[in-house]
């Protein structure tokens, strides 16, 4: 059945293409696609998407809206094949702050800009076993799609142009600029799906995940020549649950919740610009989002005395983890011309604050009087950045003017961890032998609290110009200095040769870097284990800490931790561009070598009863003076090599009888290999700090290839979009060294279909379905899912929710 659906998915797009080709008439000579002007990857004014020296995708706001999901990151991943956006579950805060991946690199190895200025990262660092483990990335879903005019995705290393993080590329969100007009869109949808669980063979028919999104924008004039664009969005999404039946309980039933969290968020953005005199413009933007999410932890059995108190939860319980996520950004700037120089100066502030809570749970060590909900503490990250960009075209005797750009960026970052309420982390007196803390999510302790900051200053020089009539070249050099680890210098050389007006080749070589984030350097989260110790013939339970420690803490250093250094990279790319009339084709091959990548180590565990001289006993002896028995930390030491190719083909057909067709075929092939991993230096028997499971998450946690076929049709008031996305198999690695705990998601084709009808000039009604044929990844085998709680892999690149049916009403004025 899976194979049949896959073939049907692929055939649907092929059939559309074939039928369109039969209906077309010869296109007129002037029937060409609009060439969008881009500002990402080049500082030359007026450079079009197809004339750039490196590949740039342009995703319009219209494209973002032609699907059921109203999440910005989900819509972007469905449009750009080199981006994947998995939907992990049971991963604490990562359930609601999910990472996006470009070209298989880390989520924090893609720089995100808003209107060309660096966007702040999320306060959350992913320390769980999902895609992006160990990274603190930008939360793309904190920006409402109604505020976005277009997104430019630079698929090339660009640290020499933009600074830290741009190893895989750059995502630049351009906010809407309008002084008139507006619109309101209301989208409502729900999952209508079914699957047969492997636990019992019973078919489950499910209707859940009801989602309502209301979004709108309004353009206003600022005086006679300025603009103020206001955007707002409200989204209310119920949780989804794809857990199987739990055969451990009587009567057998679904006890877990595995799927998307329940989310309610409200967002507001304002973007403004106002000319000052003849040559200058003041501009700025403000954005705010409040997001409340509720995800689940794992189900606790009623008979587990270490987790449950029967008088409180006679049927067991399912802890629910809440995240209160507040995100704010504000920017102001001035740009204009002075004596032939284009000058842009801006100051941008961004802050992300996440407060954790747990409910429907308890702290068993408190006994039957334990609270059932807890405030578990929180994380805060903020960033203040000043940027100055100056450029001028200078005649130097080449085939065209040389664009000389230079500037600087000064940045200050802070990171804080705040402790939770006492009961969320304390050990009660009723059951002192039990581990402490609220189940599902243990609160941050006072010893976890940090308040740290750093400064960074960078300067750059960027040259671009036509060396001959057919050859264009560019060179960039950037130097950055950080107050915590030192400095870095990156460079980039790019060239493009236009053989004809229709055909060109392009290529680039560059170095890059990513500074260790404050979250990686200072994140701390601990729990307490009680280990029996015998002193003078008396045995007592002694508390020992275990968890994640900073690499430079006493515990981190005891385990071999060192101050973190920046990751470095070498990027190489070569490609070709062909465009003539309504047809365009780009092919870009690339190689990305990353050295000294920062990763979260394996947990090194000690034992007081282990034999002398063994690793476990040595670890215990090293850590026991500091009250710890186990730990993990962030470290450098992983080298990776990525080789891949992106292909994008577009064709536009205009036929008087059949209508207008925009056809796109886009694909990415990405081979990711781990070349080196770190090992311990403090143990008698060396062990890997980045073992088999972690390595395979890197190498096979994202699809090796992804292909999207999309057809957009319009005729008069009617329109439709048919999209087929093919995903390669993804591995979800288990802990067993022999691979017996591994499983695969399978190769799958997902079909999305939307139909639209415009009424008059201002009202459009749309209906559609994402994952029309209700496809799922392969299920986890029952022997690896004995509770029925996690029958699907969080590594699935398209999730595991099934068919989503929706309707949308849009009004414009």
From TrEMBL:
InterPro entries: Beta-barrel_TonB, Beta-barrel_TonB_sf, Plug_dom, Plug_dom_sf, TonB-dep_rcpt-like. It comes from the Bacteria. Residues 50-170 form the TonB-dependent receptor plug domain. Keywords: Cell outer membrane, Membrane, Receptor, Signal, TonB box, Transmembrane, Transmembrane beta strand, Transport. Coiled coil: none annotated. One of its GO terms (cellular component) is cell outer membrane. It is a multi-pass membrane protein. Its main location: membrane. The keyword RNA-binding does not apply. Residues 283-772 form the TonB-dependent receptor-like beta-barrel domain. It is found in: Cell outer membrane. Residues 1-23 form the signal peptide. Belongs to the TonB-dependent receptor family. This is TonB-dependent receptor. It comes from Caulobacter sp. 602-2.
């Amino acid at each position: 059945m899976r194979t049949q659906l896959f073939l049907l998915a692929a055939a649907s797009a092929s059939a559309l293409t074939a039928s369109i080709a039969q209906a077309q008439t010869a296109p007129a000579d002037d029937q060409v696609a609009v060439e969008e002007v881009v500002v990402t990857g080049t500082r030359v004014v007026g450079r079009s998407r197809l004339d750039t020296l490196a590949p740039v995708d342009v995703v319009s706001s219209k494209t973002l809206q032609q699907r059921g999901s109203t999440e910005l990151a989900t819509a972007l991943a469905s449009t750009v094949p080199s981006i994947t956006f998995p939907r992990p579950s049971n991963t604490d805060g990562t359930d609601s702050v999910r990472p996006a991946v470009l070209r298989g690199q880390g989520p924090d190895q893609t720089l995100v800009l808003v209107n060309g200025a660096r966007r702040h990262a999320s306060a959350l660092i992913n320390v769980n076993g999902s895609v992006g483990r160990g990274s603190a990335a930008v939360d793309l879903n904190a920006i409402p799609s109604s505020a976005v005019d277009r997104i430019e995705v630079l698929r090339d290393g660009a640290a020499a142009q933009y600074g830290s993080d741009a190893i895989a590329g750059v995502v630049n969100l351009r906010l809407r600029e309008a002084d008139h007009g507006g619109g309101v869109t209301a989208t409502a949808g729900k999952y209508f799906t079914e699957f047969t669980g492997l636990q019992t063979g019973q078919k489950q028919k499910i209707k859940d995940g009801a989602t309502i999104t209301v979004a709108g924008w309004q353009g206003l004039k600022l005086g006679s020549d300025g603009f103020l664009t206001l955007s707002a969005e409200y989204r209310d999404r119920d949780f989804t649950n794809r857990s199987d039946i739990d055969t451990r309980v009587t009567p057998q039933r679904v006890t877990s919740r595995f799927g998307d969290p329940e989310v309610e968020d409200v967002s507001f953005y304002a973007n403004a610009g106002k000319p000052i005199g003849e040559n200058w413009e003041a501009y700025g933007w403000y954005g705010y989002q409040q997001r409340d999410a509720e995800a689940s932890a794992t189900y606790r059995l009623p008979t587990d005395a270490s987790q449950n108190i029967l008088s409180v939860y006679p049927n067991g319980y399912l802890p629910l983890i809440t995240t209160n996520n507040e995100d704010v950004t504000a920017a102001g700037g001035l740009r204009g011309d002075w004596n032939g120089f284009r000058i842009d100066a801006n100051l941008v502030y961004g802050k992300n604050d996440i407060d954790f809570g747990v409910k429907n749970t308890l702290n068993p060590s408190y006994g039957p009087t334990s609270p059932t909900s807890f405030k578990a503490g929180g994380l805060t990250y903020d960033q203040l950045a000043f940027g100055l960009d100056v450029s001028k075209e200078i005649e130097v005797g080449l085939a065209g003017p040389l664009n000389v750009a230079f500037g600087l960026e000064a940045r200050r970052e802070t990171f804080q961890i705040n402790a939770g309420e006492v009961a969320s982390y304390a050990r009660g007196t009723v059951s002192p032998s039990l581990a402490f803390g609220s189940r599902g999510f243990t609160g941050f302790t006072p010893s976890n609290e940090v308040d740290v900051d750093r400064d960074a200053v960078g300067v750059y020089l960027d040259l671009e110009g036509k060396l001959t009539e057919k050859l264009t070249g560019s060179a960039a050099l950037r130097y950055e200095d950080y107050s915590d680890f030192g400095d870095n210098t990156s460079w980039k050389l790019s060239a493009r040769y236009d053989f004809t007006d229709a055909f060109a080749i392009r290529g680039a070589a560059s170095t890059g870097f990513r500074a260790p984030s404050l979250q990686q350097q200072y994140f701390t989260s601990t729990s307490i284990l009680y280990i029996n110790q015998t002193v003078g013939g008396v045995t007592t339970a002694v508390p020992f800490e275990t968890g994640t420690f900073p690499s430079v803490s006493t515990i981190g250093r005891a385990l071999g931790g060192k101050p973190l250094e920046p990751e470095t990279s070498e990027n190489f790319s070569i490609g070709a561009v062909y465009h003539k009339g309504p047809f365009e084709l780009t092919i870009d091959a690339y190689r990305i070598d990353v050295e000294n990548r920062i990763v979260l180590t394996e947990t090194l565990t000690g034992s007081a009863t282990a034999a002398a001289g063994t690793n476990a006993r040595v670890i215990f002896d090293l850590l026991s003076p500091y009250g710890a028995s186990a730990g993990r930390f962030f470290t450098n030491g992983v080298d990776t090599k990525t080789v891949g190719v992106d292909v994008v083909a577009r064709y536009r057909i205009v036929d008087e009888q059949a209508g207008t067709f925009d056809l796109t075929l886009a694909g990415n092939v990405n081979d990711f290999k781990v070349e080196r991993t770190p090992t311990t230096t403090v143990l008698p028997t060396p062990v890997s700090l980045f073992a088999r499971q972690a390595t395979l998450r890197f190498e096979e946690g994202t699809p090796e290839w992804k292909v999207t076929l999309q057809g957009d049709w319009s005729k008069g008031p009617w329109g439709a979009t048919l999209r087929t996305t093919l995903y390669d198999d993804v591995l979800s690695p288990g802990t067993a060294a022999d691979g017996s705990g591994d499983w695969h998601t399978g190769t799958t084709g997902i079909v999305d279909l939307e139909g639209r009808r415009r009424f008059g000039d201002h009202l459009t009604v749309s209906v559609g379905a994402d994952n029309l044929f209700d496809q799922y990844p392969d299920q986890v085998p029952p022997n690896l899912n004995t509770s029925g709680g996690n029958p699907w892999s969080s590594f699935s690149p398209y999730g595991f929710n099934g068919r989503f049916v929706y309707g949308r009403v849009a009004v414009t004025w």
